[in-house]
Amino acid sequence: MSRAEIQEANRTRILGAAREEFLARGYRDAKVDDIAARADLTRGAVYSNFSGKRALYLEVLAAQAEKSTPRDPSAQTLWEAVGAFAHAWVARLEEPGLSTYLAPEVVDDLALPYTRLRQLSALLLGLAMERLEPVSSPDGAPPARRVRQAQAILTTLHGTTALARVTPGLVEPFDVISACEQLTRLELNDWWSSPHNPVPAHPVDEPWPETTARDLVSGEPVQVDGVVAVVGTHRLMAVEEALRQGHRVTLVVVTSQPAELHPLTRLVLAETVVGLRQSFRGELPLSVIRDDTLAERVGITAVSDATEVALRVRGGRIVARAEGAGACHAVAGSRAGVSRTPPIG
User: Fold this and answer.
1) Which one, 58, 95, 120, 177, has least CB within 10 Å?
2) Alpha carbons 96 and 155: distance in angstroms, whole number
3) Other CB atoms within 10 A of residue 316 CB
């Protein structure tokens, strides 16, 4: 075996051992030394693959959350689709394995990126809901949307997940599904507000470096053409600035803490997108990828959780670029031609 193959085999053994240890002892009482012993490896071997217990825990949960059974959506109405989405969610609570509920001790100092990832999940669900039953906006009014409605649905489902862990048997699944269906009729006067004083976009002519990353939303290889947002985990919702102008957006998630925040990204998004694939038809205008080399290859020399860089890609070339607050809005509104879809909302 090559060195890379040995490392991958060790990583797989460590993840398997970690899953068994977390199942047996829970997050709080599990120890890296015991995980290493269960994997028949040294403590150093564990730390050469993972930064610590929390990174291991998030990797195990992400891998579990990403598993799903393919199912063709059959819903014709928003009520039916949200009901199917909620059904897929509560059905996973009955499956054996670790709960995806993250106790405060796990997320602790990751609270802000965790919140932004939850908001991104609500945006994805809201986009799917708007695609099935668009919300009309009066002439001259800002675009109406369903993101807060989606957030209310996800809040109900996350609360169900938490209760299912601490009070097994209390939650009646069909009541939860019915509650989520009823929330499709909730009127929240939700609308999109454009950012004030965005940074300017600049025309450029640069090659676009291809990526082999898969879309975390669809599970398919990503095809990049439109707006590319290279955004840190504290600024994820900036992508809506381009979406509401009718552009297809590829979100490249970057962070200064990849060992923990990359698996957290996979976990939080998987909780939502697995259900979306099973309940809503059609393709969303937002793709999400992780590519640790892409930022550098498009000229971003350093990334952090506050990074906000937007590019417009057309025909394999980068034709516009902006960096800073409002970059996605600026690039989406620049004159460089790019494929567009009708504005959302």
Assistant:
1) 95
2) 23
3) 11
The number of beta carbons lying within 10 Å of the beta carbon of residue 48 is 13
Which residue in the block uniquely carries the two structure tokens 């034709």?
Answer: 319
Residue 318: its H or E element: strand 317-323
Map tokens 């957030």 to a residue: 151
Question: For 105-117, b where at least 16 C-beta lie within 10 A, e where not — what string?
Answer: ebbeebeebbebb
pLDDT, residue 121, reads 98
Distance, CA of 273 to chain centre: 8
C-alpha neighbours within 13 Å on the C-beta side of residue 115: 9
Query: What domains, with CATH codes, occur in the chain?
Result: 3-50 (1.10.10.60), 78-183 (no CATH), 202-333 (3.40.30)
Mean pLDDT per 10-residue segment, the chain (345 residues): 86 96 93 96 95 96 88 91 97 84 86 97 98 89 93 97 88 95 94 89 96 94 95 98 96 96 97 96 95 94 96 96 96 66 52
pTM for the model: 0.93
